[in-house]
Write a structure and sequence with these properties.
- Component of the acetyl coenzyme A carboxylase (ACC) complex. Biotin carboxylase (BC) catalyzes the carboxylation of biotin on its carrier protein (BCCP) and then the CO(2) group is transferred by the transcarboxylase to acetyl-CoA to form malonyl-CoA.
- Its EC number is 2.1.3.15.
- The chain has eleven helices and ten strands.
- It has helices spanning 2-6, 17-26, 44-49, 65-72, 96-107, 141-157, 175-194, 209-212, 235-242, 253-258, 268-281, and strands at residues 32-34, 41-43, 79-81, 113-120, 123-130, 161-167, 199-208, 221-224, 230-231, 264-265.
- The strands form two sheets. Strands 3, 4, 5, 6, 7, 8, 9 and 10 form an eight-stranded mixed beta sheet that branches. A two-stranded antiparallel ribbon has the order 1-2.
- Helix 6 runs parallel beside helix 7.
- The longest helix has 20 residues, at 175-194.
- The N and C termini lie far apart (93 Å).
C-alpha cells in the first residue's frame, strides 16, 4: 500500500485527431493571423491596431489603400480624385473585362491606385496610394492617368505630393499602353520639379517592374518600409544573366539604403510622424535642396 501511495498513476487529458480537427474548424475565420516571417499567431484585431505589423519580429503585412489612407492622413480625412475613372480593354485581351469586374467587386476599388488630398500634421498634401490587391497593383493606363492628374492638381494648388507604391509593375493586359505610363508619370514629375514642389516617394512591399523604374524612384526623398522588396527584374533572372550569386538581402529596402538608392527605412508606426516632419521642413512649397 505504501508503494502504491508514492506511485499513483497520472491521468492525462487526451484528444483525438478528429476532435482536434473539429475544434479547429469551429474557430471563426479571421480571428487569428499567422506571421509570415516568424510564424507567431496573432489576434487579427490586435494586429490591425498595431498598423498590421508583427509585435514580435516587426514584419510588415500588406495594407490596403483605405487602411493606408486612414493611418496616414489627419483623422483619416481624404478628398478623393477621379473616382469614376475605370480601365477599358484596348487590346481586347481575353477575359480582361471579367477580371476587372471581379477585382473591383472584391476590393471595392475602381482601380489599383487611389488619389486625392488631405493633411498630414496640418500640412496639405496630394497623395496617391497603390493597392496590391487590385491585379497586384499593376500600372495600366488609368493608374498612370490618375497619378498624372494628381500631380497636375498639386501644381495648381502648390501642394507637395506623396505616393505610396505597391506594385508588380506594368499591366500586361494593356501592353504598350501600360508601358507608356512610365514616361507619362515621369514627365509629370519633371514638371513638378520645375515648379519646385516636393515629391516624397514611399516604397512598400513589393515595388517592382515598371513602377520601380518610373515615378516610384523619382522622389526628392525616397522612403521605404522595412523588408520591402524593391527592384526591376526578378532575382533569378538577374542571377542567370550575370551568372553570379546575389547577396541574401539583395533588393530589400535595407540593401538599397546601404547602397544609397533610398534615403531612409521607416517603420510603419513612424511613417506619419516622419512625413509630417518632412512636410514641416518644406512648408511653403520649397523643393528639397533648392
Amino acid at each position: 500500500m505504501l508503494k502504491d501511495l508514492f506511485h499513483k498513476k497520472r491521468k492525462y487529458a487526451t484528444i483525438t485527431t478528429q476532435e482536434l480537427a473539429e475544434r479547429r474548424d469551429n474557430i471563426p475565420e479571421g480571428i487569428m493571423t499567422k506571421c509570415k516571417n516568424c510564424s507567431e499567431l496573432l489576434i487579427s484585431r490586435e494586429l490591425e491596431k498595431n498598423l498590421k505589423t508583427c509585435p514580435r519580429c516587426g514584419y510588415h503585412f500588406p495594407m490596403s489603400a483605405p487602411e493606408r489612407i486612414a493611418a496616414t492622413l489627419d483623422e483619416g480625412r481624404f478628398f478623393e480624385y477621379d473616382q469614376g475613372l475605370t480601365s477599358v480593354d484596348p487590346l481586347q485581351f481575353e477575359d480582361y473585362p471579367a477580371k476587372l469586374a471581379q477585382v473591383q467587386a472584391a476590393t471595392g476599388l475602381t482601380e489599383a491606385v487611389v488619389t486625392g488630398e488631405g493633411t498630414i500634421g496640418g500640412n496639405p498634401v496630394v497623395m496617391g496610394v497603390m493597392d496590391s490587391r487590385f491585379i497586384m497593383g499593376s500600372m495600366g493606363s488609368v493608374v498612370g492617368e490618375k497619378i498624372t492628374r494628381a500631380i497636375e492638381r498639386a501644381m495648381e494648388k502648390r501642394y507637395p505630393v506623396i505616393m505610396f507604391a505597391a506594385s508588380g509593375g506594368a499591366r500586361m493586359q494593356e501592353g504598350v499602353f501600360s508601358l507608356m505610363q512610365m514616361a507619362k508619370t515621369s514627365a509629370a514629375l519633371n514638371k513638378l520639379s520645375k515648379e519646385k514642389l516636393l515629391f516624397v516617394s514611399v516604397l512598400t512591399h513589393p515595388t517592382t517592374g515598371g513602377v520601380s523604374a518610373s515615378f516610384a524612384s523619382l522622389g526628392d526623398i525616397n522612403i521605404a518600409e522595412p523588408g520591402a522588396l524593391i527592384g526591376f527584374a526578378g532575382r533569378r533572372v538577374i542571377e542567370q544573366t550575370i551568372r553570379q550569386k546575389l547577396p541574401e538581402d539583395f533588393q530589400t529596402a535595407e540593401f538599397l539604403l546601404k547602397h544609397g538608392i533610398i534615403d531612409k527605412v521607416v517603420h510603419r508606426k513612424e511613417m506619419k510622424p516622419t512625413l509630417a516632419k518632412i512636410l514641416d521642413l518644406h512648408a511653403g512649397g520649397v523643393r528639397h535642396g533648392s
